[in-house]
Amino acid sequence: MTTKMRSEIAEQPAALRATLDSLLPRVDEVKALGERTRQLLFIARGTSDNAAVYGRYLVESRAGRLAALAAPSVATTYRRRLDLDGVLAVAISQSGRTEEIVETLAWARDCGAATVGITNGGPDSPLAQAADVALCTVAGEEKAVPATKTYTTQLAALAVLALGLGAEVDAADLQRVPDAVEELIANPGDLDAVVEGLADKHGAVVSARGLAFSTALETALKLKEACYLHAMGLSYADLLHGPIAVVDAETPAVLVAAENSPTLAGTVALAERVVAAGAAAYTIGGGATLAKAGTAALNGPDLPEWVAPMGLIVPGQLLTEALARRLGVDPDAPRGLNKVTQTD
């Protein structure tokens, strides 16, 4: 039986095409906001927060703008007013109905920020209504609790945002993403070996750096929420500062990198170190170089680094869905989770 999660993973190429067709013509709207702002503040929770990590690395590394991740409790709990003049506040919410995120975006506007909302909830959602510019993704209804197509289309919206902010990239790269995702769904690599390698483990470390760091965080979140695996998402720079001590025969590593990234060499070195220590290193992306250094490999996309995270997450999604089924867990409805989460 095909799970809803697996079906929605398969819908991502179409969702990405529809989202890019809808949002690329709106680059000038973002540009107009960018011309009166200097830095960015990303507002999000959960999976959307992992998307925001991609957005932060993207606008800092390619558009040269300082960016930060908001602490919504400053607005909603401490109710502290900040000077946000010159700030572009970008709120990200799959549903567009998470009250904390909508409230924090309204707070940012009241503090002087220009505002963008990224949501799959449509133009009538509270988040879209609260934003100066609403970038609505076109993923369609997502029925499985773990976000898949809503996440990758959020990344697409953030790539469009970066274009509007003057990112030094080739916009044509975005048009290659749906085909690359389609290819990964058809050929994710040695999925069975990675599933079997994790099936009897209680924990794992998922690590990357730079633009791929968002993929490590999102893969770890998926393994936690749908497979109940104690998965830690860490920058490999932070991992090397001490937590690498937890990586052993019972706690494998999942290492992620884009093939043409300046972080690839460090990821390869980490894979070699993990294997030399007697632990398994399962790799996602990084081409033949990273695959050779690890224990078993999942493929990455043939894409430039700035758009690679839209493809790199797909093998992680497929791994999560397959591992959940292997463990007898329903990936569509993990225990204790709802599609829309409200926080105080």
Automatic annotation (TrEMBL):
Keyword tRNA processing belongs to the record: no
One term of GO molecular function: carbohydrate derivative binding
EC class name: transferase
Pfam families named among the record's database cross-references: SIS
EC number: 2.6.1.16
Keyword Repeat: yes
Entry keywords, A to Z: Aminotransferase, Repeat, Transferase
Swiss-Prot/TrEMBL GO biological process terms: carbohydrate derivative metabolic process
Protein name as it appears in the record: Glucosamine--fructose-6-phosphate aminotransferase (Isomerizing)
